[in-house]
Amino acid sequence: MVSVIIVSFKEPKTVGRCISSIANKKYSGIKSPFEIIQVSPDSLTLKAGKKEANKLKLSKKQFLQIKDPKKGKPYALRMALRKAKGDIVILTDGDTFFERNAVKKLLEPFQDNNIGGVSGRPVSADEITNKYSYWGHLLSDSAHHRRTKLMSKVEGKDYYMSRDTFFPMSGYIMAMRNYDIKIPKDVLSDDAYISYAIRNLGKEIGYAPEAICYVKYPTNFKDYLKQKARSLGGFSQLKRFGIFKRDKQSRSFFIELRYTFFVLRYAKSFKQFLWSVELFPVRLITWIVIWWQQKILKKGMPKGGWERIESTK
Questions:
Q1: Strand 34-40 to strand 63-67: parallel, antiparallel, or no bridges (unpaired)?
Q2: How far is 58 from 54, CA to CA, in rounded Å?
Q3: Of 187, 44, 176, whose CA–CA distance to 117 is shortest?
Q4: Are the C-beta atoms of 205 and 199 separated by less than 8 Å?
């Protein structure tokens, strides 16, 4: 059995499409039996999810909703994982949607018993019209490039597998065996924490690049900084949880510098080249903000648990 956990906050306009892209068996490739668990703190998103489930004629066993107490995504995940009955658990967000056969491709690596978790490939859903949409494509493609370089292509298969090195799974589209992983309630990068925890169990991480998930990225500097300070800052925060055992830290300002040439070569025009160059001081500012928030302000999980990035909805 497969359990799908969709965590969503104030996303009534997008959660239905997310549910449909997974529950539609002909489209996603998901096999029965399956269950979809939607976790949301707000009634509008819960109503939208229920409406889509009714439209798809999902049974009570196939669709379950949990109203979380607005304590943040890690808390919501913990609530859902306690309810999940599947041997494999797929995790995603309510503001994304999957490409055709994404579920099928995401589950294929689990044929290997050594694999404990699998990441799909996030792809920007935005057309490149300005520097922010360009950055969304650049950063998602750079993550794809890094996974394919750090992990080994499995002969005769459409996926990669970690050995001595890996890159953490993406919370936009990831799956894992139903391990009893205690996710800290104040962790900022739950996907990275889960990835390292699985590696610490002696299991490998898979990467299925044909399991595509479409994501909308920030369209202004305020939202960009807010989102990246949390996602990137989560990697810096992980050290205090003692999760770096089998593997070392995988993201930092100095590690990112190694991708300088990739960023510059990515541009397809002079305008895009300028946007690539402009990304460097922006990332530096982001890492300075992370340092200030974590080292000086001792800032962790946002007040109220959830932090909405408006321009990605």
A1: parallel
A2: 6
A3: 176
A4: yes
Q: To the nearest whole number, what is the mean pLDDT of the chain? A: 92
User: pLDDT for 148-186, tens place per residue?
Assistant: 999 999 999 999 999 999 999 999 999 999 999 999 988
Distance CA 207, CA 109 (A): 8
Among residues 96, 119, 138, the one where a domain terminates is: 96
In which domain, by residue range, is 65 found?
Answer: 1-96
Shared-domain flag, residues 117 and 92: no
Work out the end-to-end distance of the chain between its first and last CA atoms, rounded to an integer number of angstroms.
31
Higher pLDDT, 89 or 218: 89
In the block, tokens 């648990």 appear at 305
**Which pLDDT score is estimated for 306?**
56
Question: Is the same domain home to 165 and 242?
Answer: yes
* Tokens matching residue 179: 């391990």
Find where tokens 């080249």 sit: 273
Contacts for 312 with CB less than 8 Å, ≥ 6 apart: 95, 215, 216, 217, 218, 219, 223, 227
Tell whether the model's pLDDT for residue 304 goes beyond 60. Answer: no
Residue with tokens 């949390």: 230
Q: Do residues 223 and 257 lie in contact, with contact meaning Cβ atoms separated by under 8 Å?
A: no
